[in-house]
Amino acid sequence: MTTSLIARRGLIAAGMALALAGPACAQDIPRMDPKACKGQPEIKPLQPLTLRTARGAVPFQVEYAGTERQRTYGLMCRRSLAADRGMLFDFHAPMEGVAFWMRNTLIPLDIIYIRPEGTVVSIARNVQPLNERPVPSGGTVRWVLELRAGRAAELGLLPGDRVLHRTMPRG
What is the pTM of this model? Predict the structure, then answer.
């Protein structure tokens, strides 16, 4: 076999593997009819997370999105989110230029961007469903927490407040 034939077969195999693996990023996920929207099932087990604000500590149970696929699908197609629930996206390293959008997301959310040391860098409040405009973090983040819209205001959550989770530095 020639080198070019081996290389071509390698490219074909790589392409097939990517196709079978599903979408590589959120842009690859097609827009879905909200009535027939199918997202990922709830990620279990739920994990404890605490928000520490000037008003006190507030416990949550969150889905932990630690893989690329889990982060890509997030809360797409969910029809509700309880007040004490959320989803924590872990990028496993500090990231610049992080922005979220609401493709196929059927419920309004508060999006909390969290610095590598575990404090809130910014909060996008009441981000509307199906809005595909990027919502930037405004700083370096390692985690992003999505909560039901309005929860951040109800709790008095502000930039600089601490988020506690098993993956975050104690503080």
Answer: 0.85
Q: Which residue has the tokens 């309004």?
A: 108
**pLDDT for position 75:** 98
For strands 141-148 and 162-164, give the pairing.
unpaired
Lowest mean pLDDT, pick from 10-14, 34-38, 104-108, 123-127 = 10-14
Distance CA 157, CA 151 (A): 8
CB 134 within 8 A of CB 107: no
SS3 content of the chain, % helix, strand, coil (to 5): 20, 35, 45
How far lies 7's CA from each of 11, 19, 66, 160, 166, in Å? 6, 18, 33, 51, 44
Q: Centre a 10 Å sphere on the Cβ of residue 153 and count the other Cβ atoms it contains.
A: 13
Q: Who's near 88: CB < 8 A, 6+ residues apart? A: 47, 49, 62, 63, 64, 65, 143, 144, 145, 165
